[in-house]
Structure formats: structure tokens, C-alpha cells
Amino acid sequence: MTMEAYRYEDGSISYPGHPRSLDGLEPVDTIDLSEYTAEVVTWTTSTATPPGVRQPNTLVIVEFDLGEASSDASSSQIEAEDGETVRAIGQATTDDVETGDTVRPVHVDELREPGAGIREPDSQEWDGYRFEPV
After folding, report:
1. Whole-model pTM?
2. pLDDT in tens, 52-80
3. How many angstroms separate the CA atoms of 123 and 85, rounded?
């Protein structure tokens, strides 16, 4: 699984990707954000979570600087201009996170317990990414 952002015809970048940009343009490239590190912009901890979601659940908003690849990045890195960024929101792997921390996306098989909600467990995918301090 990849954490794909889309680049559009005008150079704008969106995560998650959409079939059209805000200006109605089609995507021309994808960017695997799992190959980058990010900086925590802000965070919060939810103590009243939905069924099947861990409690407490720390969420972070992170910003990926696409001009800086992580040290373990593959050759699929895009040519990014200096200062080109994209933001994402997701769970943190720990409650010990602060604004300004460097994090990396890590894949997990279950972001929540599939059988705890009202949806049939086989009706959707439950995997995704959490952000782990580097």
C-alpha cells in the first residue's frame, strides 16, 4: 500500500488525491508520501473515540516537504521545487508527540477494530498509515 498524493496539470498537489483538482484539472503524477518524512504542525488527543478506535487516540496534522527526501527513499522521488509541501492528518503511533517533531508514515494493518462498528468487516479496508516519531 502506498500513501499517494496527486500532482495536477497546474503543479498543485493534493492528499488524498482526487480525480480533479480544485480548478477541475486531472492528475498527471502520483507521489508516494511514505517515502518522505514530515513535520508535526499540530496535534490533539481524543479521549472519546468511536467504537473500535483506540483510546486515547492522538491525531497529528503533518506537513511533508517534497523537496526533502528521507534517507531511505527510493528512486521514485519526484522532482519537487523548493518549498513544495502537502499536509495530511492521521493517527500518531505514540501519545508522546510535539509540534515540530519529525515523523514518518508507517503502515498498519488495522487503524481500528473491524468488528466493533456498524459496518460489515469485509465491506472496506481497515489498513492505513500512522505517523511515528523519527
Report:
1. 0.83
2. 888 999 999 999 999 876 545 444 445 55
3. 33
